[in-house]
Amino acid sequence: xxxxxxxxxxxxxxxxxxxxxxxxxxxxxxxxxxxxxxxxxxxxxxxxxxxxxxxxxxxxxxxxxxxxxxxxxxxxxxxxxxxxxxxxxxxxxxxxxxxxxxxxxxxxxxxxxxxxxxxxxxxxxxxxxxxxxxxxxxxxxxxxxxxxxxxxxxxxxxxxxxxxxxxxxxxxxxxxxxxxxxxxxxxxxxxxxxxxxxxxxxxxxxxxxxxxxxxxxxxxxxxxxxxxxxxxxxxxxxxxxxxxxxxxxxxxxxxxxxxxxxxxxxxxx
Length: 269
Fold this sequence. Notes:
By secondary structure, the chain is mainly α.
């Protein structure tokens, strides 16, 4: 038996992409901590920012610099990074379901066949799949109820960021997956928003929070890939970076091994 190549392709793209976002996040935070404010001002647009093909808006460089001083920069960067990892994970789950359906392994949630399901249903499907998981990191398998709670929290926080300017509302808690033993994970800021309903309360996140979300997504991605390969295609070995001779190669993680610097020169010339 060998791994299904389509399923492995979906997994490896998602795995690389999640690590790419992680590397980018850590790199940008390091740059911000090392940045010289005067140098930043020198490299910002002079007095106008292009908004559309027709419009520019006037602004003050110093205002933009002040707006992104710590800790606000790290909060905003963590939000942007969270959006990216949730989107990558959503595409991976959809890819798994699509390929399984097309290969004669129809996937269901309850009695309903899954076809282009929303992320919430994809997460529920993945959790139900992993009820039977007996391959991969045993400690990771034990903490699946908690890990899936973290993943679902990331989904709901992503929705608030893109639909509600990152402000808490009642739907944040109501939309949580609260079934089959998943431990509901709530951001601590939500409790404050409930006791202060007249105040807009933003999602406050730092790099430590982002790392927790990243670990949860990567861990479940690996378990789910291992389990799918075993259950549907009979491959018994868990994916292992060492056995796959898979070091972190940033050109592959970020660009899929495309020679970006070469292409940049060729295309620009």
